[in-house]
Amino acid sequence: MENRRKPIVYVAVVLVAVVAGYFIYDNFLAPDPVGEIGIQQGNLLLDQSVPNIDGSGSVSFSDYEGSILVIDFMAPWCQPCKTQVPVLRAVESIEGVEVLTINVDPSYDMGYLMNFGEEEGITWFFGHGPATALEFEVAGIPTVLVVDQEGMIVNRAFFTTIQDFERILTPLID
User: Which pLDDT tens digits describe the chain residue by residue (174 residues)?
Assistant: First the structure.
């Protein structure tokens, strides 16, 4: 009878050790989760594909992983959006920062958007994404998202000044 209990005791000890090990790993050693995928500040950026206005293809947000990404949702008729462009030009010149401008208004054709982009001096990716704007619940424009190198949305705001960008970007660049 004594010999039958030894294997059961060994199995019980092994099970307790496994459960204890998992508990210790899960509560003390495992990396913290980085967040849910979504569209709000504190979320991992929901990946979307946006077509270029020039018809040369599209980009996905995940193409910019490892860089700081600034996403600007705008429309050509929006005066604050036009005022945001020179700010974005300054931001785009910062090493390690990529800018994407996305038109949210479906009533504009690509030819008009190309002319608008040239007139405003948009030299970075300019896409047409009304569906993406809906997916990101863009309720006012310009809506600007700043995404860190790991894909976390660190800021979501409307018109963003150069001073705001400096405050947001400095800790990400250093």
Answer: 556 667 777 766 666 766 666 667 666 665 555 679 999 999 999 999 999 999 999 999 999 999 999 999 999 999 999 999 999 999 999 999 999 999 999 999 999 999 999 999 999 999 999 999 999 999 999 999 999 999 999 999 999 999 999 999 999 997
Nearest Cα residue to 44 out of 69, 27, 26, 25: 69
**Secondary structure class of 162 (helix, strand, coil):** helix
Do 26 and 55 share a domain, yes or no?
no
158: exposed, middle or buried (Cβ count in 10 Å: 0-12, 13-18, 19+): middle
As to burial, measured by CB atoms within 10 angstroms (0-12 exposed, 13-18 middle, 19+ buried), residue 144 is: buried
Same domain, 107 and 143: yes
Q: Which domain covers residue 23, as residue numbers? A: 1-30
Same domain, residue pair 26 and 41: no
Q: List the structure tokens of 27.
A: 């509560």
Give yes or no for a contact between 124 and 88, defined as CB atoms under 8 angstroms apart.
yes
